[in-house]
Amino acid sequence: MPRLRRGLAAAVALTSLIVLPPGASAVAEEPGGTAQHMPLGPADLETVAEPVQTLAPGITYQKFSQGRASDLWSVEVEIDVPGGTSWRVGNRTYADAMVTALADKGFAGRVDSRQVPVLTGGGGFLSENMVRVGRFGPDDQTAASRLKGWLDSSGYSSRVVYTAQDGAATTGPWRVQVVTVDPTAAVAFKAVHGQDVSTTQTVRDMAKSAGALVAVNGSEFDIHAPSYDGDPEGLYVQGNNLLSEANNGRTALLLEGAGARVRVDEITSKTQVTAPDGQVRQIDGINRVPGRIRGCGGIGADHRFDGKGADPETRPWRGILCVDPDEVVVFRPEWGTATPRPEAADSVDVVMDGNWTVKEIRPAGGPVPAGSRIMQGIGTGAEWLRAHAVVGQAFKPGTTITDAQGKPVTSPTLSAVAGGGPALVRNGEIMLNTVANGMYDAVWGTPTTAVVERHPRTLAGVTATGALLLVTIDGRDPRTSVGVTMREAAEVMKWLGAKDALSLGAGGDTTLVAGDTLYNRPMDSWTAAGPTERKVGNAVVVVNK
Predict the structure, then answer these.
(1) What is the mean pLDDT of residues 444-458?
(2) More confident residue, 192 or 309
(3) What is the DSSP string of 42-101?
(4) If pLDDT is split at 50, 70 and 90, which confidence band does 149 have?
């Protein structure tokens, strides 16, 4: 736990204590005083620590603020490239050509560049270039929006941007919300979803249903999936039940598992079934649309929908859709009321009871009976099920969930979520395993914009003493907080005393709720009118034992 300044009254829920990360030397005498400088922006920026709130016995909350607005609003224009396509980020030749084309129509464009590391091959750096028009102060978003209208009417594809997002040096501002749960607190840590795994719900509503003291958003999810947008991207375990398979090798947050109440590790899951005739089949997925592998990292003949990467593709790729025409996916009652109707020409449902005894073989897409398990097959997966499923006879299932060393992590109380990745801190030192989490470009080897640009972030970590840290960093608002890059997020978690930490869902997902109160400002975009609580796939909650 962070150390508290002594000699001040501490008998009320809202105290005047200033919480300092390990190593901090002094704070202001007055409540809401100055804390040790957060590792964001220039060293001369003042860090203001608001008074600590005790949310429940053993659970505290504190907000840190730092910095001032100094960046600019601008309008970013997509760069035309040969072949009739356009890119948001391009090489310098294409960017310069776009500036010339803009000048021909009377717009004064410029090229804003940043250097990004190459994470694969021989390493080095590449220049990423953005074409922009106009420079407007932090309070003049309206002028940028008006310029965007003129550009759009001239045939350009554009968007309003605030330059702090780029990841370059800035003065902020930043707002960081920190919940610390003492390891002796009489609470339990869980991962929860809304009404169904297949649908979304706000963190506030999930917290209310779970009776949570504190809740934050958990996994990223298949936000673009037709009808089933709640499907988590990668690992999701609740009460030791695997409700979504891992994007194998990605970093996950393990709660109430074997040997540790809070743990960060790289996780792989494997499920297989043995048919009544002894034939064995590895299951491709749990509770998701067959043929659609959000985040890749699966088995079989998966390949990236965009045609990049290997074929078959077994590596995880954050946010990328992989596809496979030949799969078997298991559905549990947590999925929802009905299995999906696949687009595949050949598909089938094998409906079983809770003991995996086959009750019905039917066309794919139908009700999910209470307590049932359903295997849905497409392509050769459908053929295998028809060949080996017999009404009245049982399949034998088996599932393993293992860490980076291949050791099982399951326990009767295990909950787990794979967040937005990557790991941030390992053994008290900054460690971003960006490649292991598929957060880089398959062609150039450079980290994705989710890594190098500033966004709102939800972070989780554990201290050397076993305290759970749940942290949100607001973003997308020049007035209050511009967000952080992944590297900056790692710096903040180390500053807060995390021994191990990772990133959960980010961007508009970022939400912190305590009781029925929203403690941060979720922003869908830089141009959003105000905070909006986004519906998400699942949440991490703290509940009374």
Answers:
(1) 96
(2) 192
(3) -TTSPEEEPPPEEEETTEEEEEEEE------EEEEEPEEETTTEEESSB-HHHHHHHHHH
(4) very high
**Exposure string for 440-460, b = 16+ CB within 10 A, e = fewer:** bbbeebbbbbbbbbbbbbbbb
Could you identify the residue written with the tokens 């990423």? 128
Q: Which residue has the tokens 């704070």?
A: 27
Cα 156 from Cα 76, distance rounded (Å): 10
Structure tokens at 413: 């109380």
Which pairs count as long-range contacts for 246-249, CB under 8 Å and 24+ apart, including other chains?
A: 246/297, 246/401, 246/418, 247/295, 247/296, 247/297, 247/298, 247/316, 247/318, 247/418, 247/438, 248/297, 248/298, 248/314, 248/316, 249/297, 249/315, 249/316, 249/404, 249/436
d(CA 509, CA 220) in angstroms, rounded, equals 8
pLDDT at residue 28 tops 70: no
Count CA atoms within 13 Å of residue 424 on its CB side.
32
pLDDT at 301: 81
Strand partners, 130: 112
Contact call for residues 533 and 511 (beta carbons, < 8 A): yes
SS3 5: coil
Joined tokens for residue 146: 């008006």
pLDDT number for residue 26: 29
> Residue 31, Cα to own-chain centre: how many angstroms?
34
Residues facing residue 398 across a β-bridge:
272
> What single letter denotes the amino acid at residue 252?
A
226-257 tens-digit pLDDT: 789 999 999 999 999 999 999 999 999 999 99
Reading the block at residue 25, the tokens are 């030397």
Looking at residue 225, the DSSP 8-state letter turns out to be S
pLDDT at position 72 is: 98
pLDDT at 38 exceeding the cut of 50: yes
pLDDT band at 307 (very low <50, low <70, confident <90, very high): confident
pLDDT for 33 equals 64
Residue whose C-alpha is closest to residue 277's, from 386, 125, 436, 126:
386
Q: Which two tokens stand for residue 415?
A: 């909950």
Q: In this model, does residue 11 exceed pLDDT 80?
A: no
- The confidence band for 5, taking pLDDT boundaries of 50, 70 and 90, is very low
For the segment 444-455, the average pLDDT, to the nearest whole number, is 96
Report if pTM > 0.90: yes
Q: Got the DSSP string for 411-430?
A: -TT-EEE--S--EEEETTEE
CA–CA dist 45, 47 (Å, integer): 7
In this structure, is the dihedral angle defined by the CA atoms of residues 165, 166, 167 and 171, taken in order, positive or negative?
negative
Q: Are 113 and 167 in contact (CB under 8 A)?
A: no
Q: Give the integer Cα–Cα distance in Å for 500 and 260.
A: 12
Of 502, 535, 488, 381, the C-alpha closest to 39 is 488
- The radius of gyration computed from the CA coordinates of the chain, to the nearest angstrom, equals 25
Token pair belonging to 311: 């074929």
